[in-house]
Specification:
mainly beta; six-stranded antiparallel beta barrel; two-stranded antiparallel sheet; about 110 residues; about 0% helix
């Protein structure tokens, strides 16, 4: 299994599929996602964007499921998440010719 390199003491590979970028500014975005590999915990860092060579360094600052803030997303759940950091401008809504965009990263150590 290939581990995704991540800064500091992060571990546990996680994937979020981007459905829709709702609000984005220079360094933060609110995004509708589906958790493909989790659980994804608050503070997870994402450093890889599927189908792209663009560099990203995004941190999930919070997640909302059915109107409630949650500390983590389990595999299969959809949610609104807040992402902060470098690379927000590379996130795109929906499926492209190459498929759905997926951000990959790691959870913070407990």
């Amino acid at each position: 299994m290939n581990e995704i390199p991540s800064p500091g003491s992060f571990g546990g590979c996680v994937d979020l599929q981007i459905d829709r970028v709702i609000v984005a500014s220079f360094e933060k975005a609110t995004v509708s996602v589906r958790c493909l590999r989790g659980p994804v915990r608050r503070g997870a860092r994402f450093n890889r964007l599927s189908g792209s060579a663009e560099a990203i360094d995004l941190t999930m600052t919070h997640a909302v499921v059915y109107g409630h803030r949650v500390a983590e997303l389990d595999t299969g759940l959809t949610a609104f998440v807040a992402l902060r950091g470098d690379g927000v401008q590379h996130l795109i809504s929906g499926a492209s010719a190459s498929g759905w965009q997926v951000i990959q990263g790691a959870n913070p150590s407990p």
